[in-house]
Amino acid sequence: MKFVLTGFTQNENIRHYSFQRIGGDRKSRTDVTVGVDMTLLLKHRIPLQEAPLLCSLLLASRAGDEQDPSFMIAEGDIRARAEQGASERAKSQSKRKPASLPHETPTPRPQSAPDFGSGKLGIGLGSRTGYPCSPQARKSLLSGDPNRNT
C-alpha cells in the first residue's frame, strides 16, 4: 500500500495533511487525513519539513488497520521520531573524519626599509617602479618627517 501527499490545511497550531491511500491493485484510492500539532514538533525539535514523512511512516505502520480515515499523531510518536533522529545524527557524527591537525604558521620574514634608490617600493604587488624623488625627500621619508617635500 502506498500513500501520496495531496496537500494540507492548517487551523491554528494543528496542521492536517491529506493523503491518498493507494491499494495494491493501484486502482482503489481512499482519502486519509493526519493531524499534527505544530507545538509538539517545536517542543521535540523536529523540523517542519519532516512532518509529512512522519505522517506517511505512521500511515504505513497502520496500513493493516482499517480505522478512522482521520486521526492525530500522538506525542509518543513524535517523541519516538525525535529520539530516532537524534540517534541518526549521533551515528553520522561518529562516521565523520577526524579534524586534521592545524598546519604550522610560517614564521614572518623580517621587514626591511624600502629601497628608494632602486626605484622599487616593495609594496607586495610585484616589482612596481617607484616614483622618483629628491635625496632630501628620501631622507624625510626614511626619518618619518611629516613635513617632507616630494
Question: Can you describe what's shown?
Answer:
- By secondary structure, the protein is an alpha+beta fold.
- It folds into 2 domains: about 1-95, no CATH class; about 110-145, no CATH class.
- The chain is about 30% helix and about 20% strand.
- The chain has 4 helices and 4 strands.
- The protein has helices spanning about 40-45, 50-60, 75-95, 135-145, and strands spanning about 1-10, 15-20, 30-35, 70.
- It has a 4-stranded mixed sheet with strand order 1-2-3-4.
- A hairpin with a 2-residue loop joins strand 1 and strand 2.
- It is elongated and about 100 Å long.
- It starts with a strand and ends in a 7-residue tail after the last helix.
- The mean pLDDT is about 75.
Quick summary:
The chain is α+β, with helices and mostly antiparallel strands and 150 residues long. It contains 4 helices and 4 strands; from the N terminus they run βββααβαα. Strand 2 and strand 3 form a beta hairpin.
